[in-house]
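User: Predict structure, ligand phenylalanine.
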Amino acid sequence: MNELEQLVHSARADFDAATTPADLENAKARYLGKSGRLTDLLKGLAALPPEEKKTRGAAINEAKQQVEALLNARRQALADAELERQLRAEALDVSLPGRRRGVAGLHPVTRAMERIEAIFGSMGFEVADGPEIESDWFNFTALNTPQDHPARSMHDTFYVEGGHLLRTHTSPMQIRHAVQHVKRHEARLASGLPMPDIRVIAPGRTYRVDSDATHSPMFHQVEGLWVGQNVSFKDLKAVYVNFLQEFFETTDIRIRFRPSYFPFTEPSAEIDMMFGSGPLKGRWLEVSGSGQVHPQVIRNMGLDPERYIGFAFGSGIDRLAMLRYGVNDLRLFFEGDLRFLSQFR
Ligand code: PHE
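Assistant: Predicted complex:
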């Protein structure tokens, strides 16, 4: 290896050893700088005779070009490595699952409630809403269930301060709505004119101390009330059959009234229904309490029981939703498990 080849060789080793651009520029100075080795060699040419100058000059220039090429290659390599490092540092892990936007849907009980409102709405029923924290008067006493009435024990509930309680049924809405309705038509009533019928449903949350596969401490009911001067059980039956047929989208349904007892209706009946086909075919299913509004309740509404008569019913919405969607455990509705709920999107 001659002197120039050795110089190129050592330049390559120095450049390769430089791991940063600053190191590389220092190495470059040692060869190509003002007093670098190649620069010194070129300066030395001046002292040579013309013939030698030419061949020696060409050889040095060739070595210089090689060193410059090595320098450029190393510069590029360092720049590439830096870029690579940056890219790796900023890399996105595309294998991570993205954040998906969930598709929302209405809760099955809400859907059932909306259906119920639409169906009764189409039959001319208003929809009313009222407080879940209720007074003793509206929840019991006004509904002909005084303090020591045995029926109260079936309605054990959650009591809050001030003698209020979480309503045990939607029936207090019968009184609340009727009283308002009567007030709205006070003038007509005072002059002996008939009042437009009270026709209302009141869906909402209700509470009792009860918990198993078919009972939840919080559940949903829908109250129905129709009071007028000529309203009978026949109207109740027509309304309720029509409701069930619309709700379950089949006319293949039978209903029966089974004698029962509620303090606020007389006579009282449980409404049972039976599907003529499908998985529940042939079984009587209890869906509602009902009855003719008790004269004392009519009086508490501010009406004369000699002139006004009507019926009321109170149905379990969760029960209706379970039948409609084929759900066999009520608790599924309230656990908030998306695997269950997303089936209703
Ligand atoms: N409120 C009664 C219950 O919760 C149901 C009912 C309502 C019965 C209206 C008759 C009339 O059991």
